[in-house]
Design brief:
heterodimer; A: 134 residues; mainly alpha; Four Helix Bundle (Hemerythrin (Met), subunit A); 0% strand; elongated; B: mainly alpha; Amino acid/polyamine transporter I
Chain lengths: 134, 405
């Protein structure tokens, strides 16, 4: 039993080590992609008056922390430059849109929120397609 | 007539009391990441919890004694010391996670940071325990907890594909993130089979002065209460699978889970989530703190009873007071409530044998339980699933660390 467990763990470790830098990066951007989708949904629900402004702001702040962390990961990644650039661009778009939403919900600026929702959707779509190609 | 009323109330309280922070966290993660594919782990856990809750209630009804009390008397203090210490740590972690859940619910309602709420929530939980009787605690928080049925209603409103939901009842291999899949499966089991539940339930049965005539009531409460209670958790998996998964939202933060009900109930969904989370976690926090006091008092042979005046069982009250204070420190020092919950639930599953083995040994003692001792089916099912959970936990926790998701 112990031997089986040890084998299983070693196999798992080996699998992790065998990942290419590109695969590793695409796995590591998973939380950022999820936050983009979350911000899109939160924005849509705010526009539908289903969630309060304070919730959207708190969600934006939580997302910004993770987006910043992912941006650092991308910068330190050994993956191909073109992949890093594509990912980094989407994260920058989402970070800027998040900051815009944070201000817009306070000012009740529905137009900016609606535009930001579309930017989140587009950035998420790019990352989703990249992840699918993994 | 009195028994029928108690049975109805018992089932309602079991349904209301089933759902807590662990279920909210693990079920929303499961549904968001794997849609309905992990329903099987919830069903597996429900079967075990039905058996274990039934056993702990039957034990209390037949012997008029709670579990820790008898384990210490029967096997000696040294035998009980290690499980007792492990369970004390687990109790504190669960209490911290439940307090985190209440703080998050209040954060949703007020927008104030979680740290601000840590001490007020601790005072609220403590006041409840200091002032209320066992009956008040048992009935009020659990009956209010029926608000969590909103997840079942929301699940029905989303019209999930029946065949996919039913297919989730059978274990299948994941198409992606296997380490995350098994880790969530283990966490769901740990969330449902929380060790505090058995000590709370058996001590509560002693507080309620159950006798052998309550054995059938206990069985019905365990089967129907836990069975219907698991429906709420299935509801949460289904809602997350219908709302979060198609959008590509993974639950790595409670803010993401808070959006779950907003589609089924525009505007009210947000409020319902906050209230469900707050009440479910408040009820569970009170139960965990009480369970901690029961466990200490019974281990060291002190006076105990929620219905006694604090002056009559000062050490019992001191334990829940200190526990609540320690439990609130996690939020006060800025721990992430979701990460704390998920980690705690996985550890819960890993230490399941520590709870289940002494209980099973006692349940097979015919000198204590006479004709009410365990049968073959109870033993086989419980031992089988506990061992399976242990293997899954031993494998998946290192995998999760290695996988780093």
């Amino acid at each position: 039993m112990r031997r089986h467990l040890a084998f299983f763990l070693c196999a798992a470790l080996a699998t992790c080590r065998q990942q290419s830098p590109e695969q590793k990066l695409l796995k590591e951007i998973d939380p950022a992609a999820s936050w983009m989708a979350t911000l899109q949904f939160a924005g849509e629900q705010w526009l539908a008056n289903s969630v309060p402004t304070r919730f959207v702001r708190a969600t934006v702040h939580a997302a910004q922390k993770d987006l910043k962390k992912t941006a650092r990961t991308v910068d330190q990644s050994q993956a191909a430059q073109s992949l890093r650039d594509t990912v980094r661009r989407q994260i920058d778009v989402a970070t800027a849109a998040a900051a815009a939403v944070d201000r817009a919900v306070q000012d009740n600026d529905r137009r900016t929120v609606a535009m930001s929702v579309q930017r989140f959707a587009a950035a998420h779509e790019v990352l989703r397609k990249l992840e699918e190609s993994r | 007539m009195k028994k029928a009323l108690q049975l109805a109330l018992g089932i309602l309280t079991a349904i209301g009391g089933f759902f807590d922070v662990g279920n909210i966290a693990t079920c929303s993660q499961a549904g968001a990441a794997f849609r309905f594919q992990l329903i099987w782990s919830l069903l597996l856990a429900t079967i075990v919890v039905i058996f274990l809750v039934e056993m702990s209630g039957r034990f209390a009804a037949v012997t008029q004694k709670a579990l820790p009390d008898t384990i210490r008397e029967h096997f000696g203090f040294t035998f009980w010391l290690v499980p007792f210490l492990i369970l004390t740590v687990i109790h504190l972690l669960v209490l911290g996670a439940e307090i985190g859940g209440i703080c998050f619910a209040l954060h949703l309602v007020t927008g104030l940071p979680l740290q601000v709420w840590a001490l007020p929530v601790a005072v609220l939980v403590w006041l409840f325990l200091w002032r209320a009787t066992f009956k008040t605690i048992e009935n009020s928080t659990s009956l209010l907890g029926l608000i969590t049925l909103a997840f079942v209603v929301a699940a029905a409103m989303h019209h999930p594909p029946t065949h996919e939901v039913l297919a989730g009842a059978l274990p299948t291999m994941p198409s992606h993130d296997p380490e995350n899949y098994w880790f969530i499966a283990v966490s769901i089991i740990g969330a449902v089979i929380a060790p505090y539940l058995f000590y709370f339930y058996s001590s509560g049965a002693v507080e309620d002065q159950w006798d052998v005539s309550y054995v059938p009531v206990n069985r019905a409460v365990a089967v129907m209460g836990m069975g219907f209670g698991s429906l709420v958790s299935i509801g949460a998996i289904v809602v997350a699978g219908m709302v979060l998964a198609p959008r590509g939202i993974r639950v790595t933060d409670y803010h993401q889970a808070a959006l779950m009900l907003t589609q089924a109930f525009p505007f009210w969904g947000y409020v319902l989530f906050a209230v469900s989370m707050g009440i479910a976690c408040l009820g569970a926090a009170i139960e965990v703190a009480l369970s901690m006091s029961y466990s200490f008092a019974q281990t060291f042979g002190w006076n105990w009873g929620e219905d006694l005046e604090p002056a009559e069982d000062a050490r019992f009250c001191l334990v829940y007071t200190v526990s609540i204070l320690l439990g609130s420190l996690f939020m006060l020092f800025g721990f992430d409530p979701l990460k704390l919950t998920i980690l705690t639930m996985a550890i819960n599953a890993a230490v399941l044998p520590v709870v289940a083995i002494p209980m099973l040994l006692l349940m097979n003692d015919r000198t204590l339980l006479r004709e009410h001792a365990n049968g073959v089916i109870s033993n086989v099912v419980t031992v089988g699933i506990v061992l399976l959970t242990l293997v899954l936990a031993v494998v998946s926790i290192p995998l999760m660390i290695v996988g780093g998701s």
